[in-house]
Amino acid sequence: MVQKGGFCLETCARPNILVLEPYRCARDDYKDDGTNILLDANENAYGPGLDLHPDGSLKTTMPNGTGDSKRPEVDLRGLNRYPDPHQIELKQKLCKLRNTHTHTAKDLRPENVFVGVGSDEAIDALLRCFCTPGHDKILTCPPTYGMYAVSAQVNDIAIVKVPLDVHNAFNLQPEAINATLSADPTIKMVYICSPGNPTGTLISKSDIQRILEHSTWNGIVVLDEAYIDFSPDGASLAEWVTEWPNLVVMQTLSKAFGLAGIRLGAAFASPDVAGLLNNLKAPYNVSSPTSELATAALQPGNLAVMRSNRAKILEQRQRMLIELPKVPRIGRFLGGTYSNFLLVEILDKAKDHGGRPSNESAMALYEALAETKGVVVRFRGKELGCEGCLRITVGTSDEVGRLLAEIRGIFSSNEIDDHRGVDGGQMTEEKKEQEANGVVA
What we know:
Blueprint: E1 3-4, E2 7-8, H1 9-12, H2 15-18, H3 26-29, E3 37-38, H4 88-98, E4 113-116, H5 118-130, E5 137-140, H6 147-154, E6 158-161, H7 174-183, E7 187-193, H8 205-212, E8 220-224, E9 247-252, E10 265-268, H9 271-280, H10 288-297, H11 300-323, E11 330-334, E12 341-346, H12 359-373, E13 375-376, E14 378-379, E15 389-393, H13 397-412, H14 415-421, H15 426-437
């Protein structure tokens, strides 16, 4: 590295940052150029959960005729002022949404909520709040969301892994988790993704409770519910934090609400834990435009739009579950179906000819779709228990129709085998698979 005078970057920077692998996201490989069909980042293909005019402007009156809210507008003249550091109105609306009284008679209140830049800020804030760098650890359950590991490495926190049960639909293994927690008191947090990414499995409430009830472990259970709104009503355990002081539930407006572009996430916790998170955050971490749009999205008329879009996604999810298995080289769906994506095996030959899941075939289909058909999905074959798997986001009716047609066409024309034949050997194939699998999405 370059040195000048007494400065040397290699010895000045933190060692764990010097070896940090560059963060790769879904848009690094294939851009949104207006023609690609993007089924790789689990975004909401039907658009934001806001009642919009055809020109994209927000309506004043809601579709149910209630006129229940003011039209959200960003005060451009007020952008010289810092935003509200407390976001009480936004927090109140988040609480109202999650106070279903399915799991408790108690109510969430604003003092139970931390809001930040997507769920990723909450992931990082929890690490900084509870883990001592170079000493403490977190526990994750692979295959799972990659940002837990990225944030842990940034914060110099070691990771202990207790895998999901790959032979039982990627369900949690609470006995193994509890045994690991008993053996290592330096583990301060358990990160659980429910529904899982990339598994789509909804973790059972009873399994989570078994970890919460651990008699000697002094730590936090973090439940990531980014995809919870694609699950049955009442599935969210957000309100359960009023019963369990060692539970934190994270959510986001990026998925079902279709608002990935505003980067708004929330963490529900006991007032004491939420207070710590709010104390350590930057004072103005949520911008005024983000706050306005997020607050609008949680008003009844716009919630109706979100729920309508969600219903369309669930309809297309069912269509994919029916139609994809009709393709001879499509194998099993793995995990659950509680998200806006499906995890599916790609086979090396047709099912009726004894086809087996193949990373090489999955990678070839992934590349053929993206590079020649403009349909982008996500390769996940290097994840534990996901041999030969693609993760495919549920798109609109037209997008799903094109996806199905392109997959059928690629297989019927043997184009996938042409892609498999163009390589520089096993090392090239391995490198391609590792790079494609390394995207955090």
